[in-house]
């Protein structure tokens, strides 16, 4: 028994040493495994960082390409806009020149038309003078007067042509009071000439432009009464109606507008005559008639 205990005591340190050695080796293995895991984790992190850096670099490169592309597009747009402006500048300038030329041509045509009207008026006056002279020559000479006649007539040496030309010239130059006096004298002295209806019409028109609507209506009415069949009759009838409307003679104006539309349905003033009737409340609008 004592021997057993003795040998047991001798073996105890050996057994303990062996156990400690195994534990140490186990710890060393664990440490080695841990180091290997750390290395693997480090490699994994390095790989992920490399991928992330690659992605970031690709994003930076793509951003640079986009910025470069936008710059190129902007440059291309600016170049195209500049080219379009250069291409349009010359046609626009040419168009402006042509418009100016057309305006000059229209003014020239207007002047030519005014001259033609003046010449035609002079020709009418000459024809009237010739007609008067023929009538005088074809009339037997009257017996010598016993006394000086005080009957009204044109001043000695004044012809219908000269009288009308003077009146029309002053009217065209804006000397309306003088033209009114001259046209009135013409109608009085030469009531049967070709220009008499036109002279009477201008009397009404001068009153109309001056806002003297009562006198204008009377003057236009004189055209209708004295010269019912002449080119100025439709104009005189329309402006008589307008003068009555502006003079607040609504009933008379409405009747005159309706008569004008009935007599001259193709006149250029018919549309405005209908509009004036609607203003006077004497005609419904086309839209309301359809309902």
How would you describe what is shown here?
- The chain is an all-alpha fold.
- It has helices spanning 2-138, 160-172, 176-189, 196-209, 213-226, 233-246, 250-263, 270-279, 286-290.
- It starts with a helix and ends with a helix.
- The relative contact order is 0.04.
- Mean pLDDT is 80; it is low at 135-151.
What's the gist of this structure?
This protein has about 290 residues and is mostly helical. The protein has helices at about 1-140, 160-170, 175-190, 195-210, 215-225, 235-245, 250-265, 270-280, 285-290.
- Largest sheet, described in full? none
Shape: rod-shaped
**Beta-strand percentage?**
under 5%
DSSP, total strands: 0
Number of helices: 9
For this entry, give a set of tags.
single chain, 291 residues, mainly alpha, 81% helix, 0% strand
Topology of helices and strands:
Layout: H1 2-138, H2 160-172, H3 176-189, H4 196-209, H5 213-226, H6 233-246, H7 250-263, H8 270-279, H9 286-290
Helix pairs in contact: 1-2, 2-3, 3-4, 4-5, 4-6, 5-6, 6-7, 7-8
């Amino acid at each position: 028994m004592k021997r057993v205990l003795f040998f047991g005591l001798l073996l105890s340190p050996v057994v303990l040493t062996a156990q400690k050695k195994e534990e140490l080796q186990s710890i060393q293995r664990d440490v080695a495994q841990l180091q290997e895991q750390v290395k693997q984790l480090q490699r994994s992190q390095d790989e992920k960082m490399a991928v992330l850096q690659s992605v970031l670099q690709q994003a930076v490169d793509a951003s640079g390409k986009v910025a470069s592309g936008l710059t190129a597009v902007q440059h291309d747009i600016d170049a195209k806009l500049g080219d379009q402006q250069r291409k349009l500048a010359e046609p626009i300038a040419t168009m402006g020149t042509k418009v100016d030329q057309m305006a000059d041509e229209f003014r020239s045509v207007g002047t030519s038309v005014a001259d033609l009207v003046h010449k035609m008026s002079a020709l009418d006056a000459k024809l009237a003078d010739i007609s008067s002279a023929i009538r005088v020559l074809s009339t037997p000479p009257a017996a010598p007067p016993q006394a000086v006649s005080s009957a009204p007539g044109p001043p000695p040496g004044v012809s219908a042509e000269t009288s009308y030309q003077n009146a029309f010239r002053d009217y065209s130059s804006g000397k309306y009071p003088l033209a009114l006096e001259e046209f009135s004298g013409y109608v009085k002295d030469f009531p049967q000439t070709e220009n008499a209806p036109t002279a009477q019409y201008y009397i009404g028109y001068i009153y109309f432009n001056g806002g003297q609507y009562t006198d204008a209506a009377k003057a236009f009415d004189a055209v209708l009464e004295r010269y019912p069949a002449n080119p100025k009759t439709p104009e005189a009838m329309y402006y008589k109606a307008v003068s009555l409307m502006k003079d607040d003679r609504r009933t008379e104006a409405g009747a005159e507008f309706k008569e004008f539309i009935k007599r001259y349905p193709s006149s250029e003033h018919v549309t405005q005559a209908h509009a004036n009737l609607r203003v006077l409340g004497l005609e419904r609008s086309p839209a309301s008639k359809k309902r």
